[in-house]
Structures are given as C-alpha cells and as structure tokens.
Amino acid sequence: MASTERAHRPTLAKTLAREWLSPGVVRLARRLLAYLRPPPWEYVPGGWQAAGTKARGWEAESIVAVEAAKWARFVRLTQGNGPLGLAHEALRPVTEDYAAHNTMMAFAYVLALAARQKDRISILDWGGGLGHYYLLSRAFLPDLELDYHCKDLPLMCRRGRELLPDVRFHETVESCAGRRYDLVLSSSSLHYSENWRDVAAQLAGMTGSYLYITRIPMVRHVPSFVVLQRPYGVGYRTEYLGWFLNRDELLDALQVRGMELVREFLIEERPFVHRAPEQGEYQGFLWRPAPGRNGT
C-alpha cells in the first residue's frame, strides 16, 4: 500500500503563498478551496466507524490498473547504475525524487543489516502491493537470495503473481502466519488498518530479526486520529481511511510485544490534512526482538 499523495513537495504556488501571504490568508484560502472541491486529506472527527460508509477502500480495480500500467517503467528504472529515487505511486515514476531517494537509502540500510553474514533471507512485505520492494531489494543486494512474501488484498495479489512469479503473494493473514521472517517490512500500510495495534502485534510475532515500519504518518501532541484520503490525483478512483498515529502510542504498542527500537528514520512527507488537530510527519522505525523474548 502507498500513501499516494506526495504533498510534502512544495509547488511554486505553495512557496509563494508561504513567503508572501499571512497565515490567516492562507487558512482562509484553504477553507475556500475545501468548499469548491473536497480536500485530498481530511480529518474525521468521529473516528473510523463514523466515516466508514464514505470510503470505498483499497480493494479497487483502479488502483491495480494504475500501478500495473506503470510497472514496466518501474522495472526499467531499477536497473542499471542510476539513482534509486523512486516513488512508485507517482503519476510517472522518475529516479530523481530526493525524498524517495532518502526513503530508499534508509530501506537499503535496513536490508543490509538484516542480510548481514547471510546468503539468503526471508522477507514479509506487509501491504507490499505488486512487489516493488522486491525489485528494489534485488537492485540493492543482487547477490542475496530472497525468499520474498507479499501480503496484500486479493486484486493486487492476483496481478502481482502475474508480474513476479518468484514472489509468494498472500491474500490472508493465515497464509503468511505461522513462521518468522528475517525481515518484516511494512511501508505505508500499518496505518490503513482500523485495528492497527492488533496488526502491529501480528507483525512483531512474525519477526525473526528485524521489523521495519516506515512511511507512517506520526503526530506527537495529540492522540491518534483518523483521516479520509482521496487519492484522485494519482488516478485511484476510490477513498480510504487511515490513522495519523501518536508516536508514543506506536512505540508503546511495540514495546509491550517484546520489541526494542533500533533506529528512527526521517521521511520527508508532510501532507496537509484539512481541519486536523495536528499536522503530521511521516517517519520510519526499525525494531528487533528484545533480548530474552522467546529465547532470543
């Protein structure tokens, strides 16, 4: 799964507004625009259940069609020796996206750490879409043998099997549970689960060496809250709900599951959420099982 809106990248209009207009004028302009068209991101004060009927969700043909149409280009861009500043959810992926490059290099560090002194590792990519991180893993460590697993929704899994026959796609939790993986990856996916704490516990339970949760929107001063996302700008004809998670709530949820924090990562994504109690910032977190957990 992907956030789909790289709204952190300022346009010329946004830059001019920030530098030449007062904050009050900017707020008024945003409110006027919200009346003219629904905002891409909107705060849901009543929580998940209150907005459930407004969101069609991730199981949408348009998402699969859009991502599949860009697949061949994405494959080409992962090959060769050029930069890997790739954001697959962009309308037209390029290799010069500096924010995406930061995200990819952070993942390369995590992958190298998980593969240290190993010729083969197992990876569970939770919400892995068509398997973009598999291609990136191959690009970063081409000599590493991968036992790669993707967990996603049925429509995405069916298309993924056609594109990447070497990857095992799982449509259910039961299909990929019951074992531990050297690396469990969740990139822009955990916060799209209503019961995110239960999912975090499942991911921790399947982690053998490292758990990397990245591209997740965080807030620090208010409790976790729900947003409605309208990704029309990238061609997705659907809407979906997601959390902006309070950082302490996320860290506590993993700590009580016997995980210890190894490293935090900065992710340069800051989408503006209409009427949110706090604007968030995407981050990444790398965990490993704490000493003594289940004999470790």
Task: Give a structural overview.
This protein has 296 residues and is of the alpha/beta class. It has two domains: 6-37, no CATH class; 40-295, Vaccinia Virus protein VP39 (Rossmann fold, 3-Layer(aba) Sandwich), CATH 3.40.50. It is 34% helix and 24% strand. The chain has helices at residues 12-20, 23-36, 48-51, 61-69, 71-77, 98-114, 132-140, 154-163, 173-176, 196-205, 247-255, and strands at 41-44, 120-126, 145-151, 168-170, 181-187, 207-219, 225-229, 240-246, 259-266, 281-289. Strand 3 (145-151), helix 8 (154-163) and strand 4 (168-170) form a beta-alpha-beta unit. The protein starts with 11 loop residues before the first helix and ends in a 7-residue tail after the last strand.
Per CATH, the architecture of the largest domain is 3-Layer(aba) Sandwich
* Strands, count: 10
The portion of residues assigned to helices is 25-40%
Query: Terminal Cα separation, in Å?
Result: 31 Å
Low-confidence stretches: none
Full CATH superfamily name of the largest domain: Vaccinia Virus protein VP39
As a percent range, the share of strand residues is: 15-25%
Structural shape = globular
CATH class of the largest domain: Alpha Beta
CA gyration radius, whole angstroms: 19 Å
Query: Overall mean pLDDT score?
Result: 90
Order of helices and strands: HHEHHHHEHEHEHEHEEEHEE
Structural class: alpha/beta
Largest sheet descriptor: 10 strands, mixed
**CATH topology name of the largest domain:** Rossmann fold
Put simply, the count of helices is 11
Number of spatially distinct domains? 2
